[in-house]
TrEMBL record:
InterPro entries: Restrct_endonuc_II_DpnII-like. Residues 175-302 form the Restriction endonuclease type II DpnII-like domain. One of its GO terms (biological process) is DNA restriction-modification system. It comes from Flavobacterium magnum. One of its GO terms (molecular function) is DNA binding. This is Restriction endonuclease type II DpnII-like domain-containing protein.
Length: 312
């Protein structure tokens, strides 16, 4: 079993293509969209919007309600955090070193009347609120909860569905893809067992004491691993990829030391990397290639059959 070349690996990088997965992701927003359609009439009145943001009814928790609302008025979660930091400094006289998460903000909306009233007034009245006086107009372009036409738009399923999908309210698409990659690998091992009649086992996301780290796949088991698989999918590029490469280089170094001292119990490292975000970070990808016994991705996943043949 040979390791494919770096260029073969790099040139086989792709977007994750699975229409069934994508369609299920897009459909996951349908119930939430209908919920917004049915409740948008509450958004223009202070008390009703306060109730909307604090209630836990119809299976939609306050955090999700808040995330939906700010997405609909064009205020990202990052900008919401800046607005809340302004409120904490200017109106609540707080001193702090870190911002609140969206979940913390939602919890305080429920618990603190003053905080909730300031935010609800801001959401409804925009620049004509005491908080909005401190906010650039650029942030407030879609603060239209007092517009009848805008509320009518929010009663339109397709209009709201598009906004909620663009805002990735249910989950980040990239997060879901990362989880789905694990499913692809599981399915491949299961298919291998079905075709060959073998019964290759595996364990998923278990802490491996040798490395003091959770490993995505340990084959056949945590106690007697012969193959480790780590999986990564990146649509965009960022410094996190360099950290990921650092981590994988450290893992491989530890495995090489182990293998040198345990020649009868060798452990090999397989890295699954995919997505054009990795093509954009080829220095990091080169480092991962060097820290791998074998490399695969969605288009070369069939190579896993040969790896299992050779080592299990």
């Amino acid at each position: 079993m040979h390791k494919i070349s770096f260029n073969e690996w790099k040139n086989s990088m792709s977007f994750m293509i699975d229409d069934e997965f994508d369609n299920n992701f897009l459909k996951s927003i349908e119930n939430l969209t209908t919920f917004i359609n049915n409740n948008c009439s509450q958004f223009s009145e202070h008390n009703l919007l306060s109730n909307f943001l604090t209630q836990n009814l119809e299976g939609v928790v306050p955090l999700t309600r808040l995330r939906c609302l700010i997405s609909l008025i064009g205020l990202s979660e990052e900008r919401l955090k800046r607005v809340v930091s302004l409120i904490r400094v200017k109106f609540l006289n707080q001193e702090f070193n870190t911002e609140w998460s969206t979940k913390q903000i939602s919890n305080l909306i429920i618990k603190d009347d003053m905080f909730r009233n300031l935010l609800v007034d801001f959401f409804i009245n925009g620049r004509n609120s005491i908080v909005g006086e401190e906010i650039p107009l650029y942030y407030l372009q879609n603060f239209k909860l007092l517009s009848i036409d805008f509320i009518n738009d929010l009663s339109n399923f397709n209009y709201v569905e598009r906004i909620l999908n663009d805002g990735e309210i249910q989950d980040k698409y990239s997060n879901r893809v990362g989880t789905h990659i694990e499913t692809l690998i599981k399915n491949k091992i299961d298919s291998y067992n079905s075709v060959t009649g073998r019964n290759v086992s595996y364990e998923v996301m278990k802490e491996f004491p040798l490395l003091n780290k959770n490993i995505d796949f340990l084959i056949p088991s945590l106690n007697e691993p012969k193959i480790l698989i780590e999986a990564s999918y990146n649509i965009t590029t960022g410094s996190g990829q360099s950290k990921r490469a650092d981590q994988l280089v450290d893992i491989y170094s530890a495995l090489m030391k182990h293998n040198a001292n345990h020649r009868q119990n060798q452990i090999i490292m397989v890295n699954y990397c995919d997505g054009f975000g990795w093509v954009g970070r080829q220095n990091d990808l080169h480092r991962i290639y060097g820290a791998s016994d074998y490399v695969i991705n969605q288009k070369t996943l069939d190579l896993l059959d040969g790896i299992l043949d050779a080592y299990i």
